[in-house]
What does this fold into?
Amino acid sequence: GLGVGSENGAELGTSAQTALTEADWVVGATHQLEKVAGYNIKGEKVPYPSPFSTLSEWLVKNQHQRIVLLASGDPLYYGLGDWLVRTIGREQLIFHANISSVQASFHHLGLPWQESETISLHGRPLVSIRARIQPNRLYAVLTDQHSHPAAIAKELIECQFEQSTLWVCEDLGGPAQQIRSFSVIDPELTTT
It folds into this structure.
């Protein structure tokens, strides 16, 4: 698993660059493959399969090849790495971490994040946030199409956290980067 970072372009260390340039296969999402386009990749570049579950079969079929799987940020922080370890086994894997979206978000906001808690709502019900939130805490929330900012604000209001602030960090380092701050009762949240 090779993390390409959450910022625009791929700043890769020497070992990650070597893995990328010597790979027989480089597999990633379209935006990840674009980030590494400037490197001298000799192997074949292919998108992740759809459905994603067929990736394990593909990996078994090509197990004697050198394969680089691109991930966003740190593959072992709410990323592809956990699935890879469970599916393939740790002994066949080498990970190359980069800056995660959570880390980049806190740096853009100028907030220390060592005492924050990360909650992943990706593929999980939005109401699961209720069991985790507490007053006067800092959270990083990884979202999907069902857990957009307005939906999170609604959950916070229903849990009596209407004094909370939401920072929305999108496409960090990319051409459409946006970092916005909202009170959870801000009517503008319904348009995000």
